[in-house]
Amino acid sequence: MRQVFRQLFSWHAGPPAWGSAVVAGLGCALPLLLGLFSAHPGFLWASVGAFQAAQANPLHRFGMLRMLLLTGLGACSAGLGFWSATHPLISLSLFAGFGLLLAWLQRYGTEAGKLGIGLTVCLCLGQGQYGSSMLNNPNAIAMLFMLGGLWVMLLAFGLRGLHGLRMWPHMPRLISLLKVLRRHAGRQSRQQWGLYALGCTLAVSMAGLIVNLAHLQRGYWLTLAVVTTLQLEFRGSLVRALQASMASLTAAGLLILFGHSLQSPPMMVAIMLPLIMLSRALQANHYGLFVLQTTVCFVLLAESLAKDWHLPQVRLFNVTLGILLTLFIALLMHGLRQWLENRNATRQRAMATDQQAPTQQAEAKVGSDE
Asked: What are the backbone angles phi and psi of residue 12, rounded to the nearest 5°?
């Protein structure tokens, strides 16, 4: 309990990043306002790309490089998700690959994990938005996503100029960067990471396949519920898995209640932009809280121009199905972990018995000689 309170009160490291918050607010405001006035769904993807790029701090040394990676890879992820929405086998393999990629990036530290969660969220949004708008070209979605990211990068260059910094900072040596990543990877045992990677791969792939086969509307509520719940550190405990599931269900319920009570895109945008700026200014340092914070903002952006908030049961059903799928995978991984621990304990006892047997035989021989 003491550790939980410590995480809650120290969730943000350092002073608020108001410069990055202004960049995020202006970057998302222009596409959303254009989307309100034109009613074109393409501006929604531009706002998502702008928010994805704004997760990086342009004043940091790796800020511009990370912003470029978030924009380019996020556009590819969104386009791939939209493209796979009509192919069950491709969707299964693609979501399985992204689940494994997410677990692999988390092994190399928190910042790499944040990159992985951003790409996975873009993939889920790309698949879930299929059929809900006039857009039917994944290349167009990727380009609109990149336009939003490039608009934020332009604002970021201006922010660096106001602070008297170089437009593009000096990059470190690749060998030094690889050494740091390898040091992070060595902190976790291979067996523990293997179980976590297997759970992520199974859960994310099954979620993508269910959305594809069932043709669920707003399917990203299901996939994002699975992805978000998996990131809340079960540590092999079913109680923690149940607590994380309840936290995700509560957050989703509050979002659905918020949208259902407004049912107005202008009001949604007017309330959401200050929330995005505040969220970016007080970005969480703890990985689990960052995942919740970022996922909520992504969902608000994806639903900002929605006109079907009078049907909350669709979203609630998707979230509940995602939570049940996550609990099933957590139970499966818990059973597999217990089996591996029992097998290792049995093997160690057998080895100890084999080592003690020659000693006992020698002692018995000496006693018989005497």
From this structure: -120, 130
The whole-angstrom separation of Cα 298 and Cα 310 is 20
Q: What is the dihedral of CA 112, 288, 290, 4, to 10 degrees?
A: -130
Cβ proximity of 222 and 216 under 8 Å: yes
The pTM assigned to this predicted structure is 0.87
Give the pLDDT confidence score for residue 8 in this predicted structure.
44
In our burial notation (b when 16+ CB lie closer than 10 A, e otherwise), range 52-85 reads bbbbbbbbeeebbebbbbbbebbbbbbbbbbbbb
- Helical residues (DSSP H) of 186-237, grouped into ranges: 190-214, 220-230
DSSP string for 122-145: HHHHHHHTTTSSS---HHHHHHHH
Tens digit of each residue's pLDDT (9 = 90 or more) over 189-245: 777 888 888 989 999 999 999 999 988 888 899 999 999 988 876 666 778 888 888
Residue 308 CA neighbour count, 13 Å, CB half:
10
